[in-house]
Amino acid sequence: MTTVIILLLVAVIVIFAVKDIRINLVTRPTFRLFKKVLPPLSQTEREAMEAGDVWWDGELFSGNPDWQKLHRFPKPELSEKERAFMGEQVETLLAMLDDYQIVQKDKDLPKEVWDYLKKEGFFALIIPEEFGGREFSAIANSTIVSKIATKSLTAAVTVMVPNSLGPGELLLHYGTKEQQERWLPSLAKGDDVPCFALTGPEAGSDAGSIPDTGVVCKGMHNGEEVIGLKLNWSKRYITLAPIATVLGLAFKMYDPEGLLGDKKELGITCALIPTDHEGVQTGERHYPLNMAFMNGTTYGKDVFIPLDWIIGGEKGAGRGWRMLVECLSAGRGISLPALSTATGHLASRMTSAYATVRQQFGVSIGQFEGVQEALARIGGLTYTLESARLMTAGAIDLKLSPSVVTAIAKYHMTEMGRTVMNDAMDIHSGKGIQVGPNNYLAHGYMGIPVSITVEGANILTRNLMIFGQGATRCHPFVLKEMEAAAMEDQDVALKEFDSLLLQHILFAGSNAGMAFVHGLTRSYFAKAPVCGATTVYYKQLSRMSRGLAFCTDVAMLVLGGELKRKEMISARLGDVLSHLYLASCVLKRYEDEGRQQADLPFVQYAVEHSLFCIGQAFDGFFKNFSNPVVNFLLKRIVFPLGNHYHRPSDELAQTMCEHMSKPGVFRDRLTHLCYVDENAGTGVMENAFLAMIDTHEDFKQLRKWQKEGTIAKNLELEGAIAAAAEKNLINETVAERMNQANELRKQAIAVDNFAPGEL
């Protein structure tokens, strides 16, 4: 037996060590198989793969993340001028907003708000100063939108859109000098309001299927005949379309007469068109889930424009899809994550206050364990949301366009926002569902599905984009192997593939071996960049990175092109990658902010939640993998001792609730983006919370006297306070303070009422 084993080992060594033997026996058959199972890529898919940058997602796919590299990424911070804008212009704007009036009555922002947004450059956050813009960072853009969203989702979306995917962003990256000089100053001053039209009745998430056309032809422009485009389009769901003065338009470009060359189909193209141009029609307005931000339709039939209205000029013809993928990636990493983070900040601050103020059975509902479970989830996910917001926007400030990371942020942060809002509504109960001026949750709750559906519907993002792009883009060898397989010179391709294959085999073998060792030792020997309470988390994430890399290789080998259609399988591997990223963001923030001791329970909750989700995703992957033998082996390699990841403990949740329910530095840091309006529901709730905290011991003693029979048990609070004062158990000052707190409490738990006919 020993001799047989030795001979087999020698044979394997010879096969892989001698290049000619290896190519004939291993590489050539594998190359043929690879080309056979290679999933076919459309042109739009290929451009999406090639667009953007691989960043920390590449490290997570490597099986051996460099955690020191993570810590070396700059800490995202606002500049002095950005902080000044937050303290002055943003605060002034927030004081101007009456969201109930905007949404329920006017269905629009007031004229003075529109004027202020234009005058103070809220639509020019990303435009360079040389063109009159603010030239703010991505983290500033994100922070501004988040802060506004805690007061008014309508105002936040209105500010968000011109600074994400739109003419401004496209002009900055791809516009000609003439186009930039023509449009950017007027956009910066607010003289022009932009919108961008991509989605149509037959093309939503599959933007590559847009039916809108631009045909190259000759036509009249400014009194002379020029070569241009005859455009036909029908678009819907276009934010700012009802009031836009300049329309960014995506369409498919054709040149049937060969006026520009031999190519008949040039591909998706983007152009910039004044909305007062002949033939441009601003259509009907939409009303997205009661939100008052401007959203509507735009049409055009046989609209002629000159070629130099194409973004980038004639050279931009056919480059529109790449433009959109790269710019959408940046916008996806800023705008919707900002809205979701705002949900967390608002829900954490207001729900922790409400759970303290609202009483049932003589005690604050925050003392009920069922409420604590939901409140802790709100706090833990809010910490994760803010961590991911900072890190993702920070990547964009590094001049990167990390398409996989921003897809992760878009999907998971909007879903976390949905969970947080649902928990907040559950705790507020009747207080949360009665719409009125004092309800700070209702409009955010209505708007959650908007974030879920736009910039790539969440189902598409999770099932196709995160892993579909991640497995190819982030893997150290797959994209290179695909490029080798596509080479025309087969001899050169085979040599290139041989080199990559050898590295790929070593890579997969190393990940399989280390995943198994880490599984047996509970990652005891894995490296961590820090000591202390978070050490174990770095080790476990490294272990799961090994498991992801190995399972991805096996899935692509076994399923080949079928993996593209096995969305439930690929999405679960995408969930593993996503939670590796989210947990990384949490650990990065914890280090950046100096390992604040009060933050540790929230860090532990956030990372343990992500590890639990990773374990659940792997369980679903193993259970549903088509090949039972491979399924068995994968599970035993990644989890040789079983999957022991669990939900965060009840004890940890209770500790978090204690932190959230105390006024002070930690609560302010956790919810620092929440705008508390003294003249609205948030101010009423905050004042009641502070008053009840201040009188907590007094009310505790009052309940004790009632329990002992010193004061009648059946008295309401006002009567009990009066009885205690009458018996000289408390003095007049204490009684007055308790009555004031109780009055604030009643105001806070009250809901809005309307007279008959008022609505």
From TrEMBL:
Record-annotated Acyl-CoA oxidase/dehydrogenase middle domain positions: 195-293
Associated pathway: Lipid metabolism; fatty acid beta-oxidation
InterPro entries: Acyl-CoA_dehydrogenase (IPR050741), Acyl-CoA_Oxase/DH_mid-dom (IPR006091), Acyl-CoA_Oxase/DH_mid-dom_sf (IPR046373), AcylCo_DH-like_C (IPR036250), AcylCo_DH/oxidase_C (IPR009075), AcylCoA_DH/ox_N (IPR013786), AcylCoA_DH/ox_N_sf (IPR037069), AcylCoA_DH/oxidase_NM_dom_sf (IPR009100)
EC numbers on record: 1.3.8.7, 1.3.8.8
Reactions the enzyme catalyzes: a long-chain 2,3-saturated fatty acyl-CoA + oxidized [electron-transfer flavoprotein] + H(+) = a long-chain (2E)-enoyl-CoA + reduced [electron-transfer flavoprotein]; a medium-chain 2,3-saturated fatty acyl-CoA + oxidized [electron-transfer flavoprotein] + H(+) = a medium-chain (2E)-enoyl-CoA + reduced [electron-transfer flavoprotein]
Cofactor: FAD
PANTHER family: ACYL-COENZYME A DEHYDROGENASE, MEDIUM-CHAIN SPECIFIC ACYL-COA DEHYDROGENASE, MITOCHONDRIAL-RELATED
Domain of life: Bacteria
Xref: Pfam families: ACDH_C, Acyl-CoA_dh_1, Acyl-CoA_dh_M, Acyl-CoA_dh_N
Lineage, uppermost ranks: Bacteria, Pseudomonadati, Pseudomonadota, Gammaproteobacteria, Alteromonadales
Keyword Repeat annotated: no
UniProt keyword annotations, A-Z: FAD, Flavoprotein, Oxidoreductase
Positions of the Acyl-CoA dehydrogenase/oxidase C-terminal domain: 318-463
EC class (word): oxidoreductase
SUPFAM superfamilies attached to this UniProt entry: Acyl-CoA dehydrogenase C-terminal domain-like, Acyl-CoA dehydrogenase NM domain-like
Occurrences of domain Acyl-CoA dehydrogenase C-terminal bacterial-type (ranges): 472-754
Domain Acyl-CoA dehydrogenase/oxidase N-terminal: residue ranges: 80-191
Similarity comment: Belongs to the acyl-CoA dehydrogenase family.
Native source species: Pseudoalteromonas lipolytica
Protein name from the UniProt record: Acyl-coenzyme A dehydrogenase
Keyword Flavoprotein annotated: yes
